[in-house]
């Protein structure tokens, strides 16, 4: 009898504790946010990723009535900051804003266990905020006006080079993929960021460059750079007259750039939903759409699952390309 009574009391206490914990969690999620939110950017200040993150942070702060602070944690191709967020408390107060090298960095870099992170299972996707088409531009002195023209020149014995913002970047992967499919060797010249690569292709120190639209739009308009192709599967609204690499006959060569928000794994679903809802509303703002266009970016939005699927697809597709081509970061 005493044993049965003891079991009943134990079960009752457990039930009360479970109910109390659940109520506390619900109350926490319902009250969120009650303090400043930190958005980690795994790259230095001044670049596109940092600027776009600050745009979203400002708008999010206004809507949530709490400070949203950018914390730049550059290093190891973005892995340093990504790893930091992956290990942060899953309470919604530490978020990651990142471009798509988030997915490929562990595939192209030799990361130590302490610097690594789980691309597919270590984070909660919040929202895919924007896409940035990659464009191949050439200095007019290179004498090429299209991808077929470029390939023909190289096969005819003319040496050409292409710049990228770094070894292992999506631009590097795209350049080497095109090299393989076209059966040519256009020499890769890696830089530390998009800015220096644009400076050198405009100056003629390198013949061509794979970049995002934002930094080269003015040079294209001035005739100082010639747009040759887009890396996306379809033409971009930002430059509808520029053909895709697929249109040049290399239908499988498709690489784009995207960015989005992630949270540490285990972040409450209510918090993820709230952030997703607010950011979707922000992406509808004409002011934000116009500002994104200056960075060569187009808004996306949608459910968290869209970012999750994009991340998983890139990990599989780009992973195979990276292994096949032997692409590695410095």
UniProtKB/TrEMBL annotation:
Which residues, by range, are in coiled-coil regions? none
UniProt keywords, alphabetically: Signal
Family the UniProt entry places it in? Belongs to the UPF0065 (bug) family.
Q: Which InterPro entries match?
A: BUG, Bug_dom1, TAT_signal
Q: What is a single Pfam family found in this protein's UniProt entry?
A: TctC
Signal peptide location in the record? Answer: 1-26
Q: Per its record, how is this protein called by name? A: Tripartite tricarboxylate transporter substrate binding protein
Could you tell me which Gene3D superfamilies the record lists for this protein?
Answer: Bordetella uptake gene, domain 1, Periplasmic binding protein-like II
Protein species of origin: Variovorax ginsengisoli
* Source taxonomy: Bacteria, Pseudomonadati, Pseudomonadota, Betaproteobacteria, Burkholderiales
């Amino acid at each position: 009898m005493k044993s049965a009574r003891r079991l009943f009391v134990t079960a009752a206490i457990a039930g009360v504790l479970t109910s109390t914990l659940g109520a506390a969690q619900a109350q926490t999620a319902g009250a969120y946010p009650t303090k400043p939110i930190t958005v980690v950017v795994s790259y230095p200040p001044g670049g596109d990723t940092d600027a776009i993150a600050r745009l979203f942070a400002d708008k999010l702060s206004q809507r949530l009535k709490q400070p949203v602070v950018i914390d730049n944690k550059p290093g190891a191709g973005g892995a340093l900051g990504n790893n930091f967020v992956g290990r942060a408390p899953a309470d919604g107060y530490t978020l990651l804003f990142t471009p798509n090298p988030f997915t490929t960095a562990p595939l192209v870099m030799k990361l130590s266990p302490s610097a690594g992170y789980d691309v597919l299972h270590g984070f909660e996707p919040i929202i895919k905020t924007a896409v940035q088409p990659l464009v191949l531009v050439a200095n007019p002195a290179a004498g090429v006006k299209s991808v077929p023209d470029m390939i023909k020149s190289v096969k005819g014995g003319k040496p050409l080079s292409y710049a990228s913002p770094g070894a292992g970047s999506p631009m590097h992967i795209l350049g080497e993929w095109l090299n393989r499919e076209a059966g040519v060797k256009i020499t890769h010249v890696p830089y530390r960021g998009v800015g220096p690569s644009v400076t050198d292709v405009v100056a003629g120190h390198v013949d061509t460059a794979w970049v995002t639209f934002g930094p080269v739009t003015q040079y294209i308009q001035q005739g100082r750079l010639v747009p040759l192709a887009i890396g996306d599967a379809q033409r971009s609204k930002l430059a509808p007259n520029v053909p895709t690499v697929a249109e040049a006959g290399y239908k499988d060569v498709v690489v784009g750039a995207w960015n989005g928000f992630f949270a540490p794994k285990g972040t409450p679903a209510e918090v993820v939903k709230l952030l997703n809802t607010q950011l979707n509303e922000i992406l509808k703002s004409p002011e934000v759409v116009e500002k994104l266009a200056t960075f060569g970016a187009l808004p996306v939005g949608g459910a968290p699952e869209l970012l999750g699927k994009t991340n998983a697809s890139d990990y599989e597709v780009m992973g195979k390309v990276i292994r096949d081509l032997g692409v590695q970061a410095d």
